[in-house]
Every structure is written in structure tokens, then in C-alpha cells.
Amino acid sequence: MNGLDFAVDAFLRERTMTRGSSNRTVEAYGRDLEALVNFLGQTSVVDVKAIRPSHLRSFMAGELERGLAKSSLARRLSCYRSFFDFLIREGELEVNPARALSLPKQPKPVPSFYYPEEVKALLESISGTDLWSLRDRALLEFLYAAGVRVSECVGLDVSDVSLQEGTALVFGKGGKERYVVVGHKAIESMVRYLDARSAHVFVDSNGKVAAQALFVNRRGGRLTDRSVRRILDLHIRRVAGLSHISPHALRHSFATHLLDGGADLRVVQELLGHASLSTTQIYTHTSRDRLAQVYHQAHPRA
User: Fold this and answer.
1) Domain boundary residue among 100, 128, 163?
2) Does 105 reside within a domain?
3) How many domains does the chain have?
4) What are the counts of helices (DSSP H) followed by strands (DSSP E) for the chain?
């Protein structure tokens, strides 16, 4: 497995077949490794055993000079560590050269989110009774109520949701399953949407009934991440003073509002499907910022 290209192919196959990484993640690994292989090729390094920490430092320094963001550098270094760990498991290396490098320090951005009154204004602006208005209301209500990732939401089938119990089974990163809670407002919107949808028979290009995706497009196919962004943008434009943010910000709003309401951090971690508590803790900073803002606006001597 000495050839770099062969080693990269083996690593990507392992990520797909054994680790269950998503296609998007594997594609990102492929791009990061391709950039490194191209650099090493220019220095005549073609054997994985010949790669040294100095090679990686030179490569990363060059990428930083070319303007690559520190967050992207950190992601690349994480990829390279995983790649060389794989080669160690395969018996090709004894030492991981990427472990000699430190991840670049970077400020943690505060997640963008809506305040509760803004979420309410957004959702209540969708008041149409046609199928697609009902779908849009149910979609955004569900995203905010359950706090799921957009990719998890569009991957749901009707059978994954129990409206009677107020729960949904979602499939998260790495193929992990978890149950999320769906509030009564979202359930009411979803009942109206599914009732209206039951009057439609969607068929694919072969004349067969389309798959039972929970949220469908006008042809009966499954919505995509991009479709959800377009739907959110459409309705944001209809609410005066509402800033444009991504659909993922509804997930940020979900977590922030739960913590503001006194929810336990570990409960929020479980609902979000975070593997690490530290990932969830960023929302405590957001909550403190909100408290400070309210204080300075309301206190007469602030």
C-alpha cells in the first residue's frame, strides 16, 4: 500500500463501507487528501513511509499563506490524522506524522439564531390552506420543534414519525439513530399537512407511487437541503425586519430557547444528537449573551 493514491483510495473505501461516513464527508476527505498528495508529488514524496511532520508543516503553512481559513486547516489536519491512523492500523506506518502538528486555534463563532418572538412571527406568517403552504408550515414547525439537522429532516419517511406519541426516529451522523420529541404545535401543523396530502397521489416517471417521504416536493419526490433553504428564504422575505439565516439556524434557535427555558445541558445534547457535551456548550454562551442583552436594555442603571 506504499503508493499514496492507493492508500487514499483504501482509506476512503474504509470510511464508506466500515465507518458509515456520509457521501458528503467522504467527498470532503477526498478533496483534502488530494490537495496533500498534489503537494507531496511536487516534493517527490510518493511513499507513505517517507512522509514527515516537516512535509505537513510546509503544506499547511503554504495553505495558510494562500488564505485558507483556520477552520478549514483544522478540518484538513483532522482528516490527515484519521488517514495516518488508518495506515497504522493497516500496518503500513508505526507513527502518525500528523500527530506532531497542533490544531490551529480559532475563535468559536456564536451560532446565529432567532429570538422566540421572531420564530413565532415566521411560522405564523405561513397561513395558507393549500397543500404547499401547509407543507411549508409543517416543515418549519418540525425543524424548530425537534431541533433536527436539515439532512435528518429531509431523510424522514412518514413511518418514522408517531404523531400520537409526539416523537420521530431520525437517522443522524454516522448512521446513528435517535428519537426526538415533537411539540403539539408542530403536530397540529403536520396533521393538517398530511391530511391535505392524502388527497394527492404522487407517481414517479415510471407511473409508480412515489416513496413515502415525509416532506415532498411538487412531484412527490423527497425535498433536498437546497429546497428547504429556498422555502425558508421565501417565507423570511414576507416577514418585515427578519434577518436572513440558514435553515440550520432553526436548530440553533431550538437549542438556545431550551437552555434559556432552563433545560438541562445533557438533555439538550441528547436531543441534538451531539457526541460531545462540549459541542452543545456553545449554546450556553448564546444564552448568556441573550441575558446580558436583556439586562442592558431593561435595567435603568445598566
Assistant:
1) 100
2) no
3) 2
4) 12, 3
Residue 142: enclosing H or E segment and its boundaries? helix 131-146
Where is pLDDT greater, at 16 or 202? 16
Residues facing residue 203 across a β-bridge: 209
Strand ranges (E), the chain: 161-162, 167-171, 177-181
Residue 120, helix vs strand vs coil:
helix
Give the end of a domain, one of 65, 100, 135.
100
Q: What amino acid positions are annotated as catalytic residues? A: 149, 173, 248, 251, 274, 283
- Find where cell 437517522 sits: 171
CATH code at position 249: 1.10.443.10
- Which among 273, 252, 271 is positioned nearest to 176, based on CA atoms? 273
**Residue 62 domain-assigned?**
yes
**57 and 90 together in one domain:** yes
Residues 6+ apart with CB under 8 A from 283: 111, 252, 255, 256, 259, 268
Q: Using alpha carbons only, how large is the chain's radius of gyration in Å?
A: 23
pTM of the model as a whole: 0.62
- Going by pLDDT thresholds of 50, 70 and 90, the confidence category of residue 158 is very high
Distance CA 92, CA 1 (A): 7
Burial 149-158 (b: 16+ CB within 10 A, else e): bbbbbbbbee
Round to whole Å and give the CA distance between 17 and 293: 48
Same-domain status, 133 and 263: yes
pLDDT of residue 107: 62
Per the structure, the complete domain to which residue 160 belongs is given by 116-298
Identify the residue whose cell numbers are 503554504: 62
Distance set, CA 123 to CA 16, 17, 74 (Å): 38, 40, 37
